[in-house]
């Protein structure tokens, strides 16, 4: 199903139309006299337009960062902000410079808590890697220094305390968590910065791609994709709850955990919302109970979308019974991306029990979803047992297939597990499974649960042994992580021991999707 909601939070390159908003933003953050002038902003965009980024929330600019290229000797030597930035105009931009210099980064105070700073830093890192530069360097503020200097005794002691985690500096601690390395102090960096006593922390982030290692082919259209995608799959414990708010609190806990480990995706199980049946626990016929559950659809979608934006993580929202406008009952996965957009994937193949007991009907469309980590696809449980569906998604470019599932006993689970592993092998893609565990005795219309969630890979030399990147303990609530390297897929597809996608016999057989929009 197509996207039904436009992105509300995005990072893009700045353009001349943004200048007035950026003048207002920097003035709001630093004070009117210390903010960037329109002339400075025009200079930055003229010198290095691809290095200027804005974060936009609902059409409003709420974050900004500016960069330019510089040679190593200048970047690593003593300097002030005014000297190295050419007075704020980025006039020392060197098109052949080996380092990216971060001259500015700020976020509207009203919009803090949405990880906007992290998104802007990610945009810088992506640009650095795209250009093949050595890394990013800048002078970072020390806004806690003035208040703590007497207790610490010296600037060096203050920085040491921040590095060791004994004291949290609002700016430097954030930068250290983002992978930056402290290499020294820059005195008189911004003399007017009284909170930092004029000092700045000289920080660098080193491009991990700049190593002596062979280049690998990339999938078609994958330019700009991250080198690795961190996936968190949640093996979710079903437990009694008394309100939707209690359910939301449990979901947020796991999203927070996944985001704390800098995951790009958090994956929840199929029909995880059956837990909501324990609120009323009505002894009604199964079809009527499922229709009652659809009353929560709007709340469920809003919950996942809000958490995706707040925690800066893409959420595969398991699945939820949903009554469509046509009156058909569908089992739908809501995919809520961290840019605020919402996508839906209907279960194509309901099981016989879903059709008989709940009146659930199959959907008609399987579409790859474009994310900031590349195209993905969703196959809900039983869908994974039909190889045509996975191939259809991979033909659209999907690199990762997510399989939220809900199975009641080991045989049911193994059907999904074995088929998902087969889909990873035959399509040379990653497959991520997420299932429910736990039982709710005394809750009407709630079945038993069996799961062993996992993250699966193709079976070839670049990948994990046995084609399993991460595996769980059966029937135990837990979170699994794996770092998935998209270039490993490119290597396997283009030069692997076997090359399933390339070696298909299109002269003998074709797959045709008959239902069209």
TrEMBL record:
Gene Ontology molecular function, alphabetical: acyltransferase activity, transferring groups other than amino-acyl groups; hydrolase activity
Signal peptide span: none
Taxonomic superkingdom: Bacteria
All copies of domain N-acetyltransferase, residue ranges: 9-210
Keywords: Hydrolase
Domain CN hydrolase: 229-486
UniProt xrefs under PROSITE patterns: CN_HYDROLASE, GNAT
Pfam families linked to this entry: Acetyltransf_1, CN_hydrolase
The protein's name in its UniProt record: Predicted amidohydrolase
